[in-house]
Amino acid sequence: MTLGVALAQTNSRNYVEDSVRQARTAAELGVRAVWFGQRMDYDSPMLAAIVGREVPALQVGTSAIPVLGRHPMLISSQAQTAQAATGGRYHLGLAVGSTLVSDAFGVPFDRPIARLREFLTALRTLLDTGTADFHGEFLTVTPTMATAVAGAEPRVPVLVAAMGPQALRVSGELADGVLPYLAGPKTLENHIVSTVTEYAEAAPRVVAFVPAVVTADVQGARAKAVEQLAFYEQVPSYRRVLDLEGVQRAADLAVIGDEETVAAEIRRYYDAGATEIVLASTDLTGEADQLRTWRLIGELTPRG
Asked: What sign has the CA pseudo-torsion 213, 214, 220, 223?
């Protein structure tokens, strides 16, 4: 997966059918990878499995499922089901979680990095060996049946929405890569890529999620980006990367303009060390501009 889109969440009465419709349209325009966020009204690995099976031209990913309130055995089985359904085209994205998730599950949001380390350690063992005997401070993982099909290929890639130094270290050691969002090119190059690479045995995947839309209505799109992305400015992990980039508002990192402008910014992220880029918020100014953005992605996507 080198260039993709995060499918916009819709208010459709049947989000599965609508997601399949969107995915088919994206594939017809040349997009080769789509990602789904995790919400509380659907299961993102199942949605990715359905879309990936219905639209075989696409690779599919989830970004990102919080580990807080979940167990590695359940995530392992969900991910492998999606991997089998898509014929090896599924990519599992995880996140530490937040106080929003903590409140929803009634689980304390304490020592998140230690929890992440235990979760990834157990999950990696489940996926790699088909079993585990893990007894940690937060998790116990002792399956009584096999947790992976012997010889199944490829193994589910595991990525983490990590941007802080400690999370990047754990992800470098135990995951296949990271999924930074709202981390600009300077922050990506100087803080994220260098840190995760330092702790990884092999070159890690760095899948940068970037809000972007191709549009003639730059002012209108910027105003909507200010409104929609303001939430992240209050979240400490995002506030940190915004400050590192030297911007005040999350919307300042939204890539908005014509095809040439957006393509140039995509190149900046690749130059900063991203191995893959996913454009998000492509629906800021409506369906016509979203399709225009997807068409550009299709044109920029290498063939073969």
From this structure: positive
